[in-house]
Amino acid sequence: MRIVIIGGGQIGSSLARTLAPDHEVVVIDHDRAVGDVFTSIDAEFIVGSGTSEEVLARAGIDSAEFFVACTGLDEVNIVACALANRIASPQTICLVSRADFVPESQGQLEQFGIDRVLWPEAQLAADIEQVVIAHGAIDAEAFAGGQVRLLEYKLGPGSPLVSASLGQLHLPRGALIVAVKREGRLFVPRGATELASGDKIIVMGTPEAMQQIERLVSPARHGDRVHVTIIGGGDVGLQLAERLEQTSSITLRIVEASRDRGELLAARLSRTLVPTWSFSRARTSAGATCSCASSTMTSVTSSRHCSDVSSACRKSSRALDGPPTCGCSSASASTWRCRRAEPR
């Protein structure tokens, strides 16, 4: 399958690296220096503009099945998709960075020949939110507009789920353990399967049923007020805060280095404390903040800061009655997944 990607930045290069082993990938970028990244990737790199008919023709747009526009400019991505749709008929995916284009305007963009619009920052914020609100879960997904949830838990030695075979557990109606991870092996459990301490279970069900699962897996945490600290008040941090403010059981704060940005955050958010500390101070105080004030700490800055926060949270575990539940995710465009740091 031929796939044409416009933009060789973090997202474009990550896509090319993932898809190149099994597909014919062509990447277009106006910056010749970007091509250095693709010397180790089995993908064709073309220097030029994704809004040029001649360049798209060189990329073989006529035979492409997918066209992905992921430059840093929304307008360029939209025009590139429109042009690709005019001269050929690939499935087009357009990445944007502003709410102006999603989700209400999804239908409006169809006139440009865009089949799907993605907002990576919003997706990252949504992924982090799913993990934060799922008490005790180390991974979380939502499907069908939130009507179905998929959660991953790590079972401790005292979990009530390790006391009997799966068929005798009487799980809540609407919930099902669909997979078990044990010692690096993934398998589908049966009624006679007995769960063990250290197993990671993947549970699927309705929101109501998953609340009952939460009571089984994390009875000490259920119903408690959750204190969340977000390191970094950029676009992802702001969107995450706006989402978490809708959950009344969450007490929220954002640590932001820029005073001007902090004032903007304070004006946009109604239930969030916004101290404008420097990141250096945030890093040195992260352990105390995590152990004394926050049950969840999430970094949405750089990979380096994310690592600093995770390290501080783990060190603070000695001060907690139980293991810390620290979440961490890089805001790098190539890192969209978010997982809670697993208890040791």
Describe what this molecule looks like in 3D:
With 344 residues, this protein is α/β, with parallel strands linked by helices. The protein has three domains: 2-118, NAD(P)-binding Rossmann-like Domain (Rossmann fold), CATH 3.40.50; 123-133 and 223-340, 3-Layer(aba) Sandwich (Rossmann fold), CATH 3.40.50; 148-217, Alpha-Beta Plaits, CATH 3.30.70.1450. It is 31% helix and 23% strand. It contains ten helices and 17 strands. It has helices at 10-19, 53-58, 74-87, 106-109, 120-133, 207-217, 235-244, 259-268, 279-292, 303-315; strands at residues 2-6, 24-29, 44-47, 66-69, 91-95, 116-118, 139-143, 148-154, 175-182, 185-187, 200-205, 226-231, 250-255, 272-273, 296-299, 327-328, 339-340. The chain has a six-stranded parallel sheet, sandwiched between helices. A five-stranded antiparallel sheet has the order 7-8-11-9-10. A four-stranded parallel sheet has the order 14-13-12-15. It is globular, with a radius of gyration of 23 Å.
